[in-house]
Amino acid sequence: MVWPGILSSAGSTPLDSTGFELSPGESRSLQASPGWSGRFWGRTGCTFDSNGQGSCATADCGSNQMSCNGAGATPPATLAEFTIGSLSVSGSVSGSSTLDFYDVSLVDGYNLPMAVDASGGSGACGTTGCVTDLNRMCPPELRVGNGQACKSACEAFGNEEYCCSGSFGSPDTCRPSVYSEMFKSACPRSYSYAYDDATSTFTCTGADYTITFCPTSTSRKSSTDPSTGTTTNSPPMIPRAPVLEDDPNGSSWLPSFTIGGSTRQIPDNALVLTLISFIVLHFFQL
Length: 286
Description:
Elements: E1 3-8, E2 27-31, E3 37-43, E4 47-48, E5 54-55, E6 79-83, E7 87-88, E8 91-92, E9 100-105, E10 114-119, E11 128-130, E12 143-144, E13 149-150, H1 153-157, H2 160-163, H3 178-186, E14 202-204, E15 208-213, H4 217-224, E16 256-259, E17 270-276, E18 278-284
Antiparallel strand pairs: 1-3, 2-18, 3-6, 4-5, 6-9, 7-8, 9-14, 10-11, 10-15, 12-13, 15-17, 16-17, 17-18
Organism: Lactuca virosa
Region (Disordered): 17-36, 217-241
Protein name: Thaumatin-like protein 1
C-alpha cells in the first residue's frame, strides 16, 4: 500500500487532493492548471482510522490526516518535483515559459525508488529518477529504523557543509559530499545535493509524465542510462524555481499526472504517477 502526498507551491492553484490511499489496481485522476508547481511523494507504513486520521512510518506530512493539507513530507522522502509551463491555445503567456521543469530529488533523503518518464511532448523530455533501492545500501549513520528509509547527510548531521547553508550557501562553496556522491553514483539523474542542477533538472513541453514508485526493469534502464542527454541551463529545483502565474485568459491545455505500478520482484509496493493535463493515479501491488 502507498499513500501519495501532494504539495502545491505558493501561488499555484491546488490540485483536487493533497493525499490519499492507493490500493492495488486502483486509479485516480487529478487536474493541474498551467503554471502549476509542486511535489509528489509516496508515504509508507501508514495507519489511518475510519475518520482518516493517523500517521505514516516514512514521509509523513504531519497533518494527522490522510490529506496533507498544505504540509510537506517529513524527511527522508524521495520527491518528484514539477514546474509546469504556462501555455495557451494561441501560444505562450507573456512573461512566462512554455517549458515544464521536473526532477527527482534525494536532497531530503530517500524512502522509495522512483522514476519519472515523459511522453508525447517536445524537447529533451528525458527520463529521470532513482530506481536503485538505496535503503539496502544506506550507511548505518543515515539509516532510519530497520531500513525503512535513508536520511540525507544534512538531516543526519545538520552541519552547514552538508546542508549547503551559511558559508556553504552557494554553488561555489557547496560541493558534493561523500554521502551525496554515494547517492549520485547509485542514481546519476537525481538531485543528490542542493546545487546538483546540471545533471538533475529536465525540461519538456506539453508532455505526459509518469511517476513510478518501485519501477520495472525497463524504467530502471532508461532512468540510469548515461547515454541519454540531460538538459542545460536548468533552473534551480523546486521550491526555488519561480512560480508561474495561471493564464488569465484560460486555456484548454492542462498538464496531467498518472500513477500506476510495476511487476518488478522487490519487497516494496509499486506506484506510478503520470503528470500531464490531468493526473491519473494508479497503484499495483507487487
